[in-house]
Design a protein that fits this description.
This protein is mainly α. α5 runs antiparallel to α6 (126-149). It is built from eight helices and no strands. The chain has helices spanning 11-30, 36-61, 63-72, 77-91, 99-122, 126-149, 154-174, 177-204. The protein has a domain at 50-61 and 100-188.
């Protein structure tokens, strides 16, 4: 009768460890609670995308006024515009910019960027926060330029003020203590097992 000791299969413990690690990661991701400050920041950034869509519509509604403001900054263009509008500018060799297609394209691109960054931020990744901060800074700069520096119709200044207020709310929420703690959490959790392993190794040595 063969009484040789049987060697335990290495596949069983390895498989168990793999399942345990996957289960723990699933528990960690499922237990991640998104704070209210993060949700408010995401809503604020989406609010800016909505403001961009409104701005695109206003550029189409007030297209003659916008082109007239553009013509005022070019020598001889304003006189031509007053005589025949945009068509007269084109016949005279001036090339007024197409504001509406550019604004519409920027709105679509901004919506896609915000969608990705918002999803990343909800996972607790810091580069999602930094990406949304960059979006807010660009929106604030654009609002100041379009609303005050270029001297557009008064309605654009109102939209610029609204955009700046929304950007300010989003910036405050992105740097709120709850947001910073939420972003620091996953990094701290990921370093905990490594520290524990080092401690076990030292005790065994």
């Amino acid at each position: 009768m063969d009484q040789r000791p049987t060697t335990p299969s290495a596949e069983g413990p390895t498989k168990g460890l793999a399942n345990g690690s996957s289960d723990s990661s699933a528990v960690t991701s499922s237990s991640l609670v998104v704070p209210r400050s993060v949700e408010l920041a995401i809503r604020a950034v989406w609010g800016l995308v909505l403001v961009m869509a409104v701005l695109t519509v206003l550029l189409w509604v007030f297209r003659d006024d916008v082109i007239g403001d553009w013509a005022s900054g070019h020598q001889g263009a304003r006189e031509v515009f007053d005589q025949g509008g945009r068509e007269a500018l084109e016949r005279a060799g001036f090339a007024p910019p197409s504001f509406v297609p550019v604004a519409a394209t920027m709105t679509v691109v901004a919506a896609m960027i915000v969608w990705v960054l918002a999803a990343v931020l909800r996972l607790g990744r810091r580069w999602g926060q930094l990406g949304l901060v960059a979006v807010l800074l660009v929106a604030a700069y654009t609002s100041i330029a379009l609303g005050f520096v270029l001297q557009p119709p008064a309605v654009f200044s109102v939209v610029a003020v609204v955009a700046l207020l929304v950007a300010g709310v989003g910036m405050v929420c992105l740097w709120h203590p709850d947001t910073r703690a939420f972003l620091a959490g996953p990094w701290a959790d990921s370093s905990t097992p490594s520290t524990a392993d080092h401690g076990d190794a030292d005790r065994s040595a």
